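Same chain as my last thread, 382 residues:
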Amino acid sequence: MKKHATAIDKVVIALILSVIFMSTAVVGDIAPPNAQGETMQPVNVTNVQMVNETVHIDLCMENATVKCNFTLMNHGGNESLLVGFPVGLGWDWWMFGEHTYPLEDFKAYVNSQPVETEMMYVKGGSQWRVWNMSFDEMEIKDVGVSYWVPLSSYGNYGREKDYWFTYVLKTGAAWSGVIEEANITIDLHGIEPAWITEIAPDGYILENNSITWSYTSLEPTENIYIRFRTLRPDCEQRYTVPGFVSDENHAGIPDAMVELHYWYPENGTVGEIIDDAYGEPLVTTSYNGTGGMVGWYNLTNLSGDGDWIDVVIVAHALDATGNERMGVSYPIKFCPFLGWSEGAVNVTIIVDIKPVTTLTPIGIIALVGLLAVVVVSRIRRR
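reply #2:
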């Protein structure tokens, strides 16, 4: 959106800018727990190898459901060890403190049998969900884990919102040897591939709304990460200015051309038409009875960029003799960051006054002062 704001407006918007920034460094492979920064290692040296890892993630707009299957093999003598799963930790900028994101509906199975788990703080202060396992020499065991977590998000105000999800793969390096085979799949549900802004690591295949990674002899050094951006769920309403175009008798006028213009209060002039979020002029027509009440309009897809601006609604219609008449709403203020929440902006088209305009080189339409005064005063009297 093109910008027009006073110094006071900019100070106000700077004070309003407080958003919740929640980062979920979520979830990952099972591992013998011992958190040392980003390096996950066994509490003690283990001979147990993660032979195979299969991960399936159902990624939705607000959460991710994770199902993992691991094959573990003990290459040494009999061994008992504590196996754990890291709980998501992040920073909540709204509360100015650390926040723990639990693994919801967490379930663990060993050889298809459910096991009891408990929360534990491991070295370094990280919180894990853990359980005990024991292995005979050369024994192989299958482990299954399932849970869901909310996605991390940024942008509780504004037009768009970012979401991201991390699957911590690096913890798999804590096991003995390499992961002989690993397959990770993310299925997108209600998320368009075009919304995705980042996927890591490289080497993935994106096809039919699924993202897959396949590895052999893996020594994991990177995590699985996906980030996408989309319109906020309440965006359509918050970035739409509605209203009613009528004549002086309050009768709705159908098929009126309705435009959103800049308003320059310092000299009482109407400026150029404002562009929408996609760079197109914000122009629509009032309903003629199809799809809505006669005279009603909706100017949609206002941009979320820029600072506070002063705007007016300008409506054009033909009278009974075919002459063009126009009306201008009272000036309003719009904040791209917060959207519109002030209700309908009505416009009365004055039948007995023709629009007299002059187009300047920069596109400003200088309206006859009488027209602006009459229109604004009549609307306010309503």
